[in-house]
Specification:
327 residues, alpha/beta, six-stranded mixed beta sheet, four-stranded antiparallel beta sheet, 11 helices, elongated
């Protein structure tokens, strides 16, 4: 069976700026595939090429069996897209927008009304169906956007950072919709996100992109297991930072950490925590906070790039080519 999403050597340049630099992807049928990375890494630019909104500078891609450049129209008919910056007319109601989307896809009115009602119920917006979208909350708009992308029952669904800016309850509700859609209908989903938990919750496989390049790819559990030892994370005063690193040097390799933190890959795991505490105490180091974390996707990213995914702005050593702003 042909993979619903295939990309080989995909490149996108904006003048001298290389936003996507040789991306290879293969997403299997009925798979939820997570595309993970910080803002500006190239996620959204890659999605825009796969959905025919941008032409690749180099490389090739096929979606739903069609070439994204030579067969762009056929690609568009086969996919659903919910972009993070989607424009929704605030003066129209949810029902009116779904009806309009159906007309654009050539769906007869009698089928469109039934389909619209089904989708509004699915995303929990039946009670708000006849309200103007301008009165919707952020979570309601994102759920409506999801419904709009499903009107024509697409073979492949692209969700570009669908929960950005949502409160925790709205985020979980949207996760449930995506999970149900995939499990009940077998829809292939490519999900871009900068949220580690989102990728862990939804995706069977992930690719981590940084500065336009894929740095890791595989099943989340397998990628985390490759990191090895759990991370001992300390919060210390800046004056004690170097001494804390020295005191823990024999317990494992230092890992990337945020400001005011020290992170060590603690060989031996939890059993070595008391020894580490004694070493810090012997060195006269006051610890403000300590925690032991099992390997996470952030650790995978840190191991691959030398920096943390959340809140990082510059790569270690200043290497890499910046990607286009906005993902």
């Amino acid at each position: 069976m042909t993979a619903p999403i295939e990309a080989e050597g995909l490149v996108r340049r904006f003048g001298d700026l290389v936003a996507v630099d040789g991306v290879d992807l293969e997403v299997q049928p009925a798979e939820v595939f997570g595309f993970l990375g910080p803002n500006g890494a190239g996620k959204s630019t890659t999605v825009r090429m796969l959905t025919t909104l941008l032409k690749p500078t180099a490389g090739r891609a096929r979606v739903a069996g069609f070439d994204v450049v030579r067969e762009a129209g056929r690609v568009r008919r086969a996919i659903g897209v919910a972009l993070q910056d989607a424009a929704i007319d605030p003066l129209m109601t949810g029902t009116e927008l779904l009806r309009l989307q159906a007309v654009l896809h050539g769906i007869p009115r009698r089928h469109a009304d039934r389909r619209g009602a089904e989708l509004l119920e699915r995303v929990g917006l039946t009670a708000a169906a006849d309200r103007r979208v301008g009165t919707y909350s952020g979570g309601m708009r994102r759920r409506l956007d999801l419904a709009l992308s499903l009107v024509h029952e697409p073979e492949v669904l692209f969700l570009d950072e669908p929960t950005t800016g949502l409160d925790p309850m709205s985020r979980v509700a949207l996760w449930e919709e995506v999970r149900a859609l995939n499990q009940e209908r077998g829809t292939t989903v490519l999900l871009t996100t900068q949220y580690l938990e989102e990728a862990d919750q939804l995706a069977g496989r992930i690719a981590i992109i940084d500065y336009g390049r894929i740095v890791r790819q595989g099943e989340p559990r397998a990628l985390k297991s490759e990191v090895g030892a759990p991370t001992l994370l300390l919060a210390v005063d800046e004056a004690h930072h170097a001494a804390a690193v020295a005191a823990l040097a024999g317990f494992g390799e230092e890992r990337p950490a945020g400001p005011g933190e020290v992170a060590i890959g603690l060989e031996g795991g939890a059993a070595r925590v008391p020894d580490a505490v004694r070493a810090l105490d012997a060195a006269g180091i006051s610890v403000n906070h300590m925690e032991l974390n099992q390997p996470s996707l952030d650790d995978v990213f840190a191991e691959a790039t030398g920096r943390r995914l959340e809140g990082a702005e510059e790569p270690a050593g200043g290497g890499g080519t910046p990607a286009a702003t906005g993902g």
